[in-house]
Amino acid sequence: MKEHSQTPGGRRPRVPGTAVHKRSVRIAGHPTSISLEDAFWDALRELAEGREIKLSELVEEIDANRESQNLSSAIRVYLLETYRQALGAGGSAPRTEAGGGSTH
């Protein structure tokens, strides 16, 4: 297993895109705070733009189709499944519906 280098303070260096940021998104007219890493916010934004919908609309779809996990986890799983499907199909910009054929 590869060892990770550490900073002088004994901490591992920060991996780009892993900082967690909390943002407010309106779901059904109510503001909801969602905490995601930058990489997931970027992917969520890209997916919404690719589908030509608002980010809040995509989050509403994910929320409506999620199982019991919290919303942040549901978003991460949804994005992972969406990108896996796109890679498996040889596609580039995933455009699947939140409830379309995936299990989250």
TrEMBL record:
Domain Ribbon-helix-helix: 21-82
Entry keyword Transferase: yes
Stated name of the protein: Aryl-sulfate sulfotransferase
Pfam families: RHH_4 (PF13467)
Renumbered residue ranges of the record's region Disordered: 1-23
Stored InterPro entries: RHH_dom, RHH_sf
UniProt KW keywords: Transferase
GO molecular function: transferase activity
Gene3D superfamilies (alphabetical): protein bp1543 (1.10.3990.20)
